[in-house]
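Many introductory courses stop at the sequence. We go one step further.
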Amino acid sequence: MYKAVFLDRDGTITKDATEYYTYKLEDYGITLGVIEALQNLSKGHKLIVITNQGGIAKGEVKLEEYYAFSNYMEKDLAKYGIKFDGIYFCPHRPPISDCECRKPKPGMILQAAKEHDIDLKNSWMIGDKLTDILAGQSAGCKSILVKSGANMKSESHLSYVKPDYEVKDLLEASKIILK
């Protein structure tokens, strides 16, 4: 079995757009320390992106736009030797559609673990929202909340969720995992 680092996309790897959804290529940018963090983490872990993309269900983001943005991110990071072992996304959004994959549910993590032979107890979920943390914990992973993304005021209903660690960015998270 393999160890993995599950990563939220928007606000963790890429910068959150100024709009509600991050999908336009002109809004693409990576957060501070991402390249070094992912290079270091890839040496001993599978890297898997786990991202909610509810704008698709709402009709505000086209599936083609999501794929274009994700492909652009992959090509950009590949220039630095970074390759993701998988990218999983949930296009659903309540009340339009309910599912088992949308974080805070652990469906995407469990699917990735099955497909990539991942040991969840020795794996990590890193995200900038409490929904990311809860998804990881529900799947049996350790968790790190990064403060590099959107603010969490809208998640006050999840105030009971406590990550294993809270850090400023992905680079600091990678140092904890590699200790």
